[in-house]
Design brief:
single chain; 433 residues; alpha/beta; CbiD-like; 2 domains; 6-stranded mixed β-sheet; 5-stranded mixed β-sheet; 19 strands; Cobalt-precorrin-5B C(1)-methyltransferase; EC 2.1.1.195; cobalt-precorrin-5B C1-methyltransferase activity
Length: 433
């Protein structure tokens, strides 16, 4: 999830997260009427590349289809091939989306195998659909979603949907999925079952149908998603609540954060560490070595949203870890801290120095600094005591106000080598340094 944008200042570059490139057809429902998301959406628009922003505002960004929709299309095509015993190998199929709309997807490949010696003489069909995520930077864009369909003789009306290679196995609670099963989420599961009933209603009276979904590159792709952290091992998830991938969706990234918090809560943990990227997470793990992996959550720039969600879910202790650039923005009250969406306020940082009894000369140096990193260097060179702790204290105060003091907050500020330079906490009643 980390990024490196040469246009960013050094302090932002240290822990930057670009527009999310995770598997964006998230299962967790997020209301589009959520005021927090509307606020994030407005601020996120400032950070998009100009050509993307222009297309978004004009409604020209191309939508795509979720892994769940692709799996449904592949399963339907394979079932048609199985029923026709290879006489009909669809080049495209139309599937029904969760809200009742229709979508037609192309089928890359479809084969029928009769009397397979290696499979107890069962006939089966295998079809492949290539995921098209539209204009969204989804890591599963271009992935092959494969469905193998076969009969279950002697088991009328039974429809079994399972995963194969490249579809992850659930190992932790909090995802709404059964531990030990493949990560095929509820909506895609219903879509596939409905497609089977649509095509094979008469055949189901005599025998059942087994559908196996696989993703050849799924294990490799999963490393670029939150699945390992969420306890989904060995592949990606088959996801999607609407069947459609909306490009550059803030809701999808917010849902990813929410889902990570859900896992921590389901595992019985009441402490999480929210970091602004991979580097700050690496440093935080060294400072807090005993917390399990799923308690470390990369919130990116969505500071206010993340702490609110954590408090709403019952998390009791929230640790924020990062560098001076993004933490100074959080201290000032900027809720979405992307470098292109907001700027470090040198006047604010100078005022904090004044609170620490800085001289007027030092005050002016900070006020005229080039970057937040430059401010850090000036403060260190002048040995201004308590400065970074005070900034952290302001972060705690500000974030506590977003969640009405429902959890304690701790803020840890690192320099760019991983040394702690500032730290503060706020309980439900008071701030202390």
């Amino acid at each position: 999830m980390d990024g490196d944008d040469s246009c960013m200042s050094n302090d932002a570059n240290a822990d930057a997260i670009p527009t999310p490139t995770t598997n964006t057809d998230i299962n967790t429902p997020i209301s589009v009427d959520d005021p927090m998301l509307k606020e994030i959406e407005e601020e996120q628009e400032q950070e998009l590349p100009k050509d993307i922003l222009e297309k978004k505002r004009k409604g020209l960004l191309r939508t795509g289809y979720t892994t769940g929709t692709c799996a449904t299309a592949a399963a339907k095509a394979a079932l048609i091939s199985l029923i026709s015993r290879g006489r009909e190998l669809p080049a495209s199929v139309t599937v029904t989306l969760p809200k009742g709309d229709k979508a037609t997807l192309q089928v890359k490949e479809c084969i029928f195998v009769a009397n397979a010696d290696d499979d107890n003489d069962r006939e089966y069909a295998v079809c492949t659909v290539v995921k098209d995520a539209g204009d969204d930077p989804d890591v599963t864009h271009g992935a092959e979603i494969v469905a193998r369909v076969e009969w279950l003789d002697g088991e009328p009306e039974r429809i079994e949907v399972t995963g194969g290679k490249g579809v992850g196995i659930v190992t932790k609670p909090g995802l709404g999925l059964e531990i030990g099963k493949h990560a095929i989420n509820p909506t895609p599961m219903r879509m596939i079952i409905n497609a089977v009933r649509e095509v094979a209603s008469e055949h189901l009276k005599q025998r059942g149908v087994k559908v196996t979904i696989s993703v050849p590159r799924g294990e490799e792709l999963a490393k670029q998603t939150d699945n390992p952290r969420l306890g989904i091992v060995g592949g990606i998830s088959i996801l999607g609540t609407t069947g459609i991938v909306v490009p550059y969706s803030t809701a999808s990234f917010a849902a990813s954060i929410k889902q990570c918090i859900d896992v921590a809560v389901a595992m019985g943990d009441d402490t999480i560490v929210l970091t602004t990227g991979g580097r700050s997470e690496e440093f935080a793990r060294q400072v807090i070595p005993n917390l399990p992996d799923h308690c470390f959550i990369q919130m990116g720039d969505f500071v206010a949203y993340s702490v609110r969600q954590a408090a709403m879910k019952g998390i009791k202790h929230i640790i924020i870890a990062g560098f001076i650039g993004k933490l100074s923005k959080a201290a000032k009250g900027i809720k979405q801290t992307h470098v292109k969406g907001s700027h470090v306020d040198m006047e604010f940082l100078a005022d904090v120095a004044k609170e620490c009894n800085a001289s007027m000369e030092l005050y002016e140096q900070i006020r005229n600094a080039n970057t937040a990193r430059h401010v850090m260097e000036i403060v260190m060179a002048n040995n201004l005591q308590g400065y970074f702790d005070r900034l952290c204290s302001k972060v705690c105060e500000r974030l506590s106000s977003y969640m009405e003091d429902k959890a304690s907050i701790e803020c840890i500020m690192f320099d760019f080598e991983g040394k702690i330079i500032g730290r503060a906490s706020k309980s439900m009643k008071e701030v202390y340094i």
